[in-house]
Amino acid sequence: MISAFPKLSFNLAEKMSEVCVTGGTGFIAAYLVRNLLQKGYRVRTTVRNPDNVEKFSYLWDLPGAKERLKIVRADLLEEGSFDAAVEGVDGVFHTASPVLVPYNERLKETLIDPCVKGTLNVLRSCSRSPSVKRVVITSSCSSIRYDYNSPERSPLDESHWSNLDYCKKYNLWYAYAKTIAEKEAWKFAEEQGLNLVVVNPSFVIGPLLAPEPTSTLFVVLSIIKGENNKVYPNSRMGFVHIDDVVEAHILAMEAPSASGRIICSADVAHWKEIVEMLKNKYPMYPISDKCGAEEGNDVTHTMNTSKIKNLGLANFKSLEQMLEDCVKSFEGRGLLQNLP
C-alpha cells in the first residue's frame, strides 16, 4: 500500500525555491504559507475564487507576501485545475479538504468527493509536472484510530488504518472520507512513482491567523460560547498545536529521510477534560457542560509519535498552551464579547 521510495541523496531544503500550498485560506494552509514565506520560499497557494479578495486578503499582509506569494485559482472537483498551480514548483503541500460540513443527504457532494476526488486531482496534476520533487498531503489521525479493537492495538502507529465499516456504523464520515482519500493517494503515488509523504495530525488547536475561525477552531469557539444547547462532543482524540503541525509538514517536505505516513499528535483527551480545563481558567464564559450522546468516538487509545520526533520535532506544545493561545486569539479578535 505505501511505497518505499528510495532515500534521497540530497537535502530537499537546499534544492527547493518555490512550493505550492493548496487551499490557502484553510487553518493549516495559511500557517504553512506564513512559515514558508518566513523561510524564504516563493509560495503559490490556491483558492476557489480569486475574485473574492476579502476572504484571503490577510495573506497579502504576511511578511514577504507581496514579493513572493502568488494566488492561483483551482477547484478540487475540476480535473486539471491544479495544473497551473503546480507547474514549475519544487514541492506541493496538499492541505485543501472539507472538515466541518452538515451530515445530510449531500454528504457525498460536500465531503467525500472533495476529499477523495480532490486529492487525486491534485496528485494527477503533480504527476504531470516534472519539476515536483515531493508531495506532502495532510491526512488525519482519523484515518488511523477508528476500529473495533483500538484499545487493544494501542499505541497506534503509522501502520494502523481506520476500519471503514466501523466509520459507517457510527457515522464517522470525516474519518471515512480521509481514510479512503489517503489509501487512494498511496495507490496512485505508487503507480506513478510520485515521492509522497503524508502527515496525519490529530485535532488542531491554536491561535487564529485568518480574521475568522476556520476548521477545528469553530468547534472550540462553539464550546466556549456554550452554543448547540451547551453540548460538547462525546469523543476522545489527540490534540496538537498548529505550530507543531506546520513544523511537521515542513520537516516532511525538507528532510531527505522523511517517508510514508507521519503521526503528529500531542495529548489524547476526552472533550470533558477540555471543558473542565476551560471552565477552571475561564469561568467568565458560558462554556458547554453537557456531553453529547453520539457513540463510537469515545475510544481509549494512545498514539506513537516516535517517527516525527526522530525527524526533529522533539517536544509538542501542551494542551494547556494550545487552549491558552486559542482563547487569547478569540479575545483579541472580539469573538468572545457580549456573551450571556
Can you characterise this structure?
By secondary structure, the chain is α/β, with parallel strands linked by helices. It has a domain at 15-205 and 238-266 and 302-315: 3-Layer(aba) Sandwich (Rossmann fold), CATH 3.40.50.720. It contains 15 helices and twelve strands. The protein has helices at residues 12-15, 27-38, 53-56, 65-68, 83-86, 107-127, 150-153, 164-169, 173-192, 216-224, 227-230, 242-254, 271-281, 306-311, 319-332, and strands at residues 18-21, 42-47, 69-73, 91-94, 134-138, 196-201, 203-205, 231-232, 236-241, 260-264, 268-270, 290-291. The strands form three sheets. Strands 3-2-1-4-5-6-10 form a seven-stranded parallel beta sheet, with helices on both faces.
Strand portion? 15-25%
Query: What's the story with the biggest beta sheet?
Result: 7 strands, parallel
Q: What percentage of residues falls in helices of 4 or more residues?
A: 40-55%
Known CATH architecture of the domain at 15-205 and 238-266 and 302-315 = 3-Layer(aba) Sandwich
- Give the strand line-up of the largest sheet: 3-2-1-4-5-6-10
CATH superfamily of the domain at 15-205 and 238-266 and 302-315: NAD(P)-binding Rossmann-like Domain
Terminal-residue CA separation: 52 Å
Number of distinct helices: 15
Summarize the structure.
The protein has 340 residues and is α/β, with parallel strands linked by helices.
Task: Give descriptors for this structure.
340 residues, alpha/beta, Rossmann fold, 7-stranded parallel beta sheet, 3-stranded mixed beta sheet, 15 helices, globular, disordered N terminus
